[in-house]
Design goal:
By secondary structure, the chain is of the alpha+beta class. The protein contains 20 helices and 12 strands. It folds into 2 domains: 153 residues, Immunoglobulin-like, CATH 2.60.40; 276 residues, no CATH class. The longest helix has 23 residues.
């Protein structure tokens, strides 16, 4: 009704699913009925968006009804397919009014009488959609029902029409038809061939993923739910445990494949072996965190034991933290394919969003058993940890005050801490602040022991200085009443 020409008339109570249909002359209903929330939701999702575009469906001048031909060459009368529109905008509706499945093509419209000439005429689908078929020209359109976008060659639409496979009472409402010509890279033809009629949430994003396939393919090989679970289960939890050499070697080769692919993709030249070694040292340090003192001893230091207790306290056996540490280590050094100067951290951070890496990893975490909220929170943490991975460099020459002031100058950190103004005061979130300190200390520990050509003694001395700063910040936080001004005052 919402997509047919004319004026759709909805009865009172129809959308709510009431059994009693009453006219406007009724002052009140006679029956006490509860609304059908599912039916209302379906109207909100499927019907109301179409009513907002009624200009595409209300007229009769552009309306064309199409025959649906099955593979056997017969017309399936249970399938209703029609186009309509206004100006140069068009819509295509197809509905299978039968309990069963069918498949076939729509190409030619049913004959209609030309009122001017008095002759029966028929139009092809590309005419009904106002397409201009040409070689290397494609049409992109969207299904309002499932939100997916599709791409087809315009010459195929002209010569064959459109192919559909329909289940019982299935329907599609296609709108937003847009023609594009092939680009210099031939990406539209590659994407159309790859999708082969399938829909995607966004053609633009699909094109980007196609372009970034040399990056995403090795990443998918390196970071998958199965690999995350294997590494999580391989962590050292007892003094007599050892890391699996085979597992580490497999991970190392997958990581090397990623770095070499990035080097080729960015047309750069770098020391691949050095990056791989540093990342491997970082991974081993992460997997040894529960038994860190046994693997990296520092006899006679009480502060060292306190620092490890602080880090290990939040590790437990919950996969979320471990998955993020492993993924962070996989990604933190990728910017080094461009430069080994400190700016590589921002390059790594930028690529996470620019190349769709975080979008992929969010799905990896959900496929690993985390819920949507946890996965999204994980992406926020990965952004933060990647950009701040080297915060410990030079921190021994900073005070806790200058350290937190530097962090608060970063928009991502302020957002993570939920800094907000209320009654003319700036507040921060207690749990987020303590979480940030723990993450900073933990990645500082991992990145420090992974630094090439740094002795363990040097690394641990830097870490103890950093731990002292973390504890100073914790004390200031406890006395701040979670107000930024009081936090900073307490550090002066």
């Amino acid at each position: 009704m919402a997509t047919m020409p004319g004026l759709p008339m909805f009865g009172h109570g129809q959308i709510e699913g009431f059994a009693e249909k009453y006219g406007m002359e009724y002052y009140r209903p006679y029956w006490d009925e509860e609304p059908d929330n599912y039916l209302i939701q379906r109207h909100q999702q499927d019907i109301f968006p179409l009513l907002k575009r009624r200009e595409l469906f209300s007229g009769v001048n552009e309306f064309l009804l199409f025959d649906f031909f099955t593979g056997e060459g017969r017309v399936n009368e249970d399938v209703f397919a029609y186009t309509n529109g206004s100006d140069h905008s068009r819509a295509l509706v197809i509905y299978h009014n039968h309990f069963g499945s069918t498949k076939g093509w729509i190409k030619a419209s049913a004959s209609y009488l030309n009122k001017t000439s008095g002759v029966l005429e028929s139009q092809t689908l590309h005419d009904g959609l106002c397409l201009h078929p040409a070689q290397n020209r494609y049409v992109i359109f969207r299904d309002t029902h499932n939100g997916l976008q599709y791409i087809r060659p315009t010459e195929e639409v002209r010569d064959k029409g459109l192919y559909f496979e329909l289940d019982a009472y299935q329907y599609h409402v296609f709108m937003d038809f847009n023609e594009v010509d092939e680009n210099d890279s031939g990406q539209y033809s590659q994407l159309a061939g790859y999708l082969n009629g399938r829909g995607v949430p966004s053609i633009d994003e699909a094109l980007k993923e196609l372009m970034l396939a040399p990056v995403l393919r090795p990443l998918q090989s390196l970071a998958s739910p199965d690999i995350l679970k294997e590494l999580f289960n391989a962590r050292i939890t007892k003094p007599d445990h050892k890391l699996s050499a085979d597992l580490l070697n497999i991970h190392q080769e997958k990581y090397r494949y990623l770095i070499e692919s990035l080097e080729k993709f960015t047309n750069s030249k770098t020391d691949v072996d050095a990056i791989v070694r540093e990342a491997q040292r970082g991974l081993e340090a992460i997997l040894k965190l529960p038994m860190f003192e046994d693997r990296y001893p520092f006899p006679g230091s009480t502060n060292y034991q306190e620092m490890l207790t602080y880090v290990q306290h939040n590790l437990a056996s919950y996969p979320f933290v471990w998955y993020l540490l492993i993924l962070w280590n996989d990604l933190r050094l990728i910017g080094k394919v461009i430069t080994d100067k400190p700016e590589y951290t921002e390059i790594s951070r930028g690529w996470l969003d620019e190349w769709g890496i975080l979008r992929y990893l969010e799905h990896v975490l959900m496929d690993s058993g985390l819920d949507t909220g946890q996965a999204q929170s994980g992406m926020t943490i990965l952004r933060l940890l990647t950009s701040q991975q080297n915060w410990i460099d030079g921190s021994q020459h900073k005070t806790a005050l200058s350290l937190i002031e530097g962090w608060l100058s970063v928009e991502e950190i302020r957002a993570f801490l939920n800094v907000n103004r209320f009654h003319e005061k700036l507040w921060f979130n207690k749990e987020a602040f303590e979480s940030m300190l723990w993450w900073m200390m933990t990645i500082g520990l991992v990145s420090r022991v992974a630094v090439p050509n740094m002795s363990l003694t040097e690394a641990l001395e830097d870490l103890l200085d950093a731990y002292h700063q973390m504890m100073t910040l914790r004390v200031a936080e406890e006395n701040s009443e979670y107000q930024l001004e009081k936090l900073l005052e307490g550090l002066k």
